[in-house]
C-alpha cells in the first residue's frame, strides 16, 4: 500500500514538473516602458500644466484671503469697525476659507480625473501590446519587474524589446 501511494506521489510530481517546464515565462519593466512612450510624456506634461493652472488659482485665492484678513485686522486696530461688524466680516472670511478648502479638494479630484482620462487609453494600449506579445510568442506569464517581486530572471526572458516593437517605439 505504501509503495502504491509513493508511486502515485512520484507520478504526480513528475507530471507536475513536466507541465511546469512546458510553461513559458517572460518579464518586462512597465515603469521603464511607460517612461519611454512619447504620448505618455505628452499626457504627463498636460497634467502638469493643468496642475500648475489650478495651483496658481489656489495661490491667488489664498493671497486674496490674506489681504482681506490683513485689511480687517487693520480696521480693527484703528477702531474703524465695531465688534459686531468685525464678527460679521470674520464669518464671511471663514466662509471664503471653506470655499478655498473645497476648491483644493475638488482640484485634487480634477487632476486625478484628468490623469485617468489621459493615461488610461495609453495604459490599455500598453497592456494590449503585452497581451499580443504573450499570445504571439507563446508566453504563459509575463511578470512586471518594476514591482520588485522578481529576484532573478534570465535576460532572454525580457520581453521589453518585443513590446516596444509592438508599440512602434
Could you name the key traits of this structure?
169 residues; 78% helix; two-stranded parallel ribbon
Query: How far from one another are the termini?
Result: 61 Å
**Residues in helices, as a percent range:** over 70%
Number of strands: 2
The proportion of residues in beta strands is: under 5%
Radius of gyration: 30 Å
Strand order of the largest sheet: 1-2
- Morphology: rod-shaped
Provide an overview of this structure.
- By secondary structure, this protein is mainly α.
- The chain has one domain.
- Helices cover 78% and strands 5% of the residues.
- It is built from five helices and two strands, in the order H-E-H-H-H-E-H.
- The chain has helices at 2-21, 30-36, 38-78, 83-137, 160-167; strands at residues 25-28, 141-144.
- The protein has a two-stranded parallel ribbon.
- Helix 3 (38-78) packs antiparallel against helix 4.
- The chain is rod-shaped, with a radius of gyration of 30 Å.
- The protein starts with a helix and ends with a helix.
- Residues 10-14 have low confidence and may be disordered.
Strand and helix layout:
Elements: H1 2-21, E1 25-28, H2 30-36, H3 38-78, H4 83-137, E2 141-144, H5 160-167
Parallel strand pairs: 1-2
Helix pairs in contact: 3-4, 4-5
Task: Give a quick precis of the structure.
The protein is mainly alpha-helical and 169 residues long.
